[in-house]
Amino acid sequence: MRKGSCGNTVTFTFTWLTRCGDSELRGREESLTIPYAPMMSFIRASEDPNEPKRWAALALTEQQYPRLVFHSKRNLKAVLANRKIYRKLRKELALHFRWPGAEEIVIYDDFVPYSFGFTEKRNGETGICGGIIFHNHHNDLATAYYGFHT
Description:
By secondary structure, the protein is of the alpha+beta class. About 20% of the residues lie in helices and about 40% in strands. The radius of gyration is 20 Å and the shape is extended. The mean pLDDT is about 85.
């Protein structure tokens, strides 16, 4: 169960596993996203003996966001090797690339360590281009951050 980044939804992820032989598992995941505030209102109200005990909600329609395609080798490997930097990049990518209508974002190496350039692809055409630059001016990962530049 995970609360959405904006706090207005909650996503339940179910993992279904099957044992294949003695040492192998196979499975699949399914997710359901519902509005957070109505769910919490129902939970609070259900404590009252006179309130309904059953709530039905359909999953929200997911917005189509662009697929992230890494054509990077060197900088991506460096980011993946450092857990703190990886978390910062993952968070920023999730927050900034919510561009409905864009098909994909192509991400490639930049000359700045841990940094990337990007190009948006929309309807088969090139859209916005820019950089995802890792700012670590004081060599302190606690204050380091990613900046998006177009």
